[in-house]
Amino acid sequence: MSYTVPPTRTAAVVRQLRNEIVTGELPPGTLIKDAELAGRLGVSITPVREAIAQLSVEGLIDIAPNRTRHVTKVTQQNALELIDVMRVLACAGFEWGVHSLTETHIDLMRQRQKEFVESVRTGNVLAAGEAGADFSTIVIQASGNRELQAMLDLVVARTTRILAGSVDGLWHTWVTGHDDILRLLDAGDTAGALERYRQIFVDHRAEVERVLLDE
User: For the HTH gntR-type domain, which residue ranges apply (predicted)?
Assistant: First the structure.
């Protein structure tokens, strides 16, 4: 996996805060203070405020009418709604792109799956989220619809937060689903691969609902 240095201080702060939120280092409900963050990260107030605004757009930080900011709390309802939105966007992109996949695309998907499985095994939530998302992104980009991918990117970090608390449980649906899709693609069964991709979201939603109810 390549590593890209953020081009600006704002981008660096966005990445740092996003990672802390996704991994649970900043738990849901945590009060976000500009000056405190700026001091901890060694930057001025401006990139911190710009980063908070960006993460608010992504749905990771809530900004109240009185301008106080908190890490967004994930309720059962908004978790399931988020999965439903991602299902619509991702399945549309997969359907549009699956017929355009080449052997090169499939080889790249296989590589990302290996990285995904290893990251899940070691409990590396951030790496697992990136590799798992890239598996789908390869297909979606094959469709040529950049706008769809941009919209889907907005929900990926929030979805990773749902998965973060249960690496051994909720990730399993994606690991086995991806393996099945690769086998179907190797056999030339694009229709079967699409149906299996859709089933991942059905199974994942049911698992998330079960986990949240247990909590």
Answer: 7-74
> What pTM, to 2 d.p., does this model score?
0.76
Annotate 89-137 with three-state secondary structure: HHHHHHHHHHHHCCHHHHHHHHHHHHHHHHHHHHCCHHHHHHHHHHHHH
Check residue 70 and report its DSSP letter.
E
Q: What percent of the chain has pLDDT over 70?
A: 89
Domain count, the chain: 2
Contact (CB, 8 A) for 26 and 20: yes
Q: How far apart are the first and last CA of the chain?
A: 35
How far apart CA 194 and CA 92 sit, in angstroms, is: 10
Examine residue 45 and state whether it is found in any structural domain, yes or no. yes
Domain limits at 21?
Answer: 9-71
The verdict on 91 and 176 lying in the same domain is yes
Return the SS3 of 174.
Answer: helix
CB 208 within 8 A of CB 170: yes
Q: Please, which residues bridge with residue 31 across strands?
A: 70
Residue-wise pLDDT for 31-56, tens only, equals 999 999 999 999 999 999 999 998 88
Cα 184 to Cα 194: distance, rounded to the nearest angstrom: 9
Q: CB under 8 Å to 180, separation ≥6 — which residues?
A: 196
What's the CA gap between 92 and 76, in Å, rounded?
A: 25
Q: Report yes or no: 196 and 139 within 8 Å, Cβ to Cβ.
A: no
